[in-house]
Amino acid sequence: MGMTDQIVLVDIYDRERGGMDKDAAHREPHLHRAFSIFLFDGDRILLQLRAAHKYHSGNLWTNSCCSHPRVGEDLRSAAPRRLQEELGVLAELREIASFVYYHQFADDLYEYEFDHVLIGEYNGPLNPNPEEVAEVLWVTRDSLALDLLERPKAYSAWFRTAAPIVLGHLGSHSV
Q1: Which sequence positions are flagged as catalytic?
Q2: Going from the N-terminus, what domains does the chain have, and what CATH number goes with each?
Q3: How many Cα atoms are found within 13 Å in the side-chain-facing hemisphere of 148?
Q4: Which of 7, 34, 166, 168 is the most exposed place for a label (fewest CB within 10 A)?
């Protein structure tokens, strides 16, 4: 990875502490900045099934798009860039929350992220990048809330924290 693939290391207050190669930051682990985008259309939320060959969480359902800003790139630039790269979508995004989470996938693979949760309305065409996304699916908020209760292991680690935040923000329903 080149210098453009350096991700932003942060402290628990999301203050920058420098940069590091993405792979190294996930092997050691180091707290770094990330974002999770949730696109919605009325009562529906767009999910993606992560491509099977991803370095972690392959074949798990997750939010519409997620990634890391690069060193020198702010969230307002990074989030639309990745949304375009992963789904071929342009949408207005706004941040509704953030949280820190830690998850160990293997002896030498971790997620330790300060995750910014962004939402946006979208109802246009999708052009998923097969390198990133195996499948996309629009689901109702109620069906997602129920499925998270019944099949939590079908979803990525960060999604199990982020989705209830988004569902609560968008408004409670009948579940």
Answers
A1: 66, 113
A2: 3-170 (3.90.79.10)
A3: 23
A4: 168
| pLDDT tens sequence for the chain (175 residues) | 344 479 999 999 999 999 998 888 888 889 999 999 999 999 999 999 887 677 666 678 899 999 999 999 999 999 999 999 999 999 999 999 999 999 888 888 888 999 999 999 999 999 999 888 889 999 999 999 999 999 999 999 899 999 999 998 887 544 3
Scanning the chain, the segments in alpha helix (DSSP H) are 22-27, 75-87, 141-150, 157-170
Buried b / exposed e across 16-37, counting CB within 10 Å, b at 16+? Answer: eeebbebeebbeebbbbbbbbb
Q: Which residue has the tokens 């789904």?
A: 87
Closest residue by Cα to residue 29 from 106, 86, 116, 90: 106
Quote the pTM value: 0.90
Instruction: Please name the residues in contact with 126: beta carbons below 8 A apart, sequence gap of 6 or more.
Output: 46, 87, 88, 89, 136
